[in-house]
Amino acid sequence: MYVSTVGDCVLMRPSDTGKPPYVARIEGIDSDSRNNVKVRVRWYYRPEESLGGRRQFHGAKELFLSDHHDVQSAHTIEGKCTVHSFKNYTKLENVGAEDYFCRFEYKAATGGFTPDRVAVYCKCEMPYNPDDLMVQFAPLCRYHPACVGMTIEEAKKLDHFVCSECSPDDDVKRPQNGFSTSPTADVKVRILEPSYA
């Protein structure tokens, strides 16, 4: 059995063996006179377990920290995992099987989220999904290659990118799809690769 401490995030065995393990944060550990160890946990929900369900911008490893508390036998703990902040998760070089991220708290009874709004990017106005490649050419300007008429291969070859929405220079000749490989553009392209790559 895994030895756990308060504050650890753990994988817990589901009663249905066909389901992935549940993820919880240990809030407390208690034992009775017969040395039966119980853990007080706060559950993480996967997007598909929430009232709104999984949405396009939810990452494959995304979890919501819920207000659902419970007491479980310590014997159901399968092992430790790490639930990163969204910012730290996007900086990981390699995402392991036990790496997850959380950017929302979730109220199980109402289906409400905190924060209730997040930044959106691209022409499709979707929040950032770390599983999808995006082209970043300014601190807050990110596009999915397909949304600006590029293939992923074309995006990876770009050195510079001029956005028709952000560029103050109307004299820059831009193709209709809104991007240019012109070396006159000031902004370097940064490819935001999926975290699991």
UniProtKB/TrEMBL annotation:
GO terms for molecular function: chromatin binding; zinc ion binding. Residues 2-117 form the BAH domain. Gene3D superfamilies: 2.30.30.490, Zinc/RING finger domain, C3HC4 (zinc finger). It holds the Pfam family BAH. Keywords: Metal-binding, Zinc, Zinc-finger. It comes from the Eukaryota. This is BAH domain-containing protein. It comes from Linum tenue. The lineage of its organism: Eukaryota, Viridiplantae, Streptophyta, Embryophyta, Tracheophyta.
